[in-house]
# Entry
Amino acid sequence: MPHFYIPHRISGSSLIITDEERMHHIRDVLRLKPGEKVSLFDIEGNVFQAEIAEVSKERVVLSSLTAQVSEKNAGIDLTVACAIPKRSKLDEIIDKLTQLGVNTIIPLLTERTLVRADIHEESHLARWNRVALSASEQCQRDKLPVIIRVTTLQEVLANSAVYSLKLIATVHESAQPLRKVIEGLPAPIGKIIALIGPEGDFSPAEVANARTAGFIPVSLGRLVLRVETAAVALAAYLQLSLQD
# Structure
């Protein structure tokens, strides 16, 4: 069943869509017709089933809205702060982390991060949010991830007290196998944050600062992974290991 995001709180038994991009997707891409069923999720994570009542050039009308109980938002509360890789691979990372149910994604600046001078512009954040929206609809997710503005490692460490479990993925000699760390955790865990470094890893000073802030250095295996691979591997392992 097609799954669509509505950027406001849904109320009532019907809904009219006039947004050109959304109408194009429903009418011309998916070619949905009156009588077909769709699912919706709103800005608060509420989920509804609806029926298409009208499709025209001017509007799409949805009727018979029925609230649904969703269990898709009941996973672990995971934040991933990922160093911005070269080229445009952050879009791919955001897409994959969204599909894996990550709650919050932080594009991260580190000592060894090489980025474009315009990386702080709002246009980048707007594009990353569009990527997350598309991935959320595709994977039938019922709540959008929060994409934070580009943030330095120092800022993340300074604001990390709210997390119960803090991990930093690194090839530093102090790193423990991720599996060993997870197996030794008490339950329930609470909020989790994981840091993914750039090509060349975090610097020794950054690892030391993270440890001082309560982060546990973890290893993702014997091989040295690309940034995008490490982010997906760590998020997937945590979701599979810690979800009920």
User: Anything to note?
Assistant: The longest strand covers residues 47-55.
